[in-house]
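Next comes a concrete protein, fold included:
___
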Amino acid sequence: MSNHISPESEQFIQYELESGTYRSRDQLLDEAVRLLKRRRELQREIQAGIDSGASISGSEVFRRLEEKAQSVEERAQSLEERARRLRHRFAMLQTPASGFSDKAD
């Protein structure tokens, strides 16, 4: 099979071969075909999503993300407060109670 490619493409192929990314021109072409097939699959999936009509506006996406971020922030604050209380309780357990002593009389 004969192929005619642009000088820029030929230069890129030579660079990839010389850099050792691909062992042969055939390996490079096989990878190129695999990537083109994957691209076609993705295009079909994107079109199927568009055709399904199940879409939301960009502003709705950002609204939902902001709600999620707020929820995460509130949860983090709650966990920080809980950790603070637990550290305080632990510190209280480490200090001797007044009127008691570890010393033997």
Q: What stands out?
A: The mean pLDDT is 88. The first helix runs from residue 7 to 19. The chain has two domains: 1-55, 57-95. Residues 57-95 form one domain.
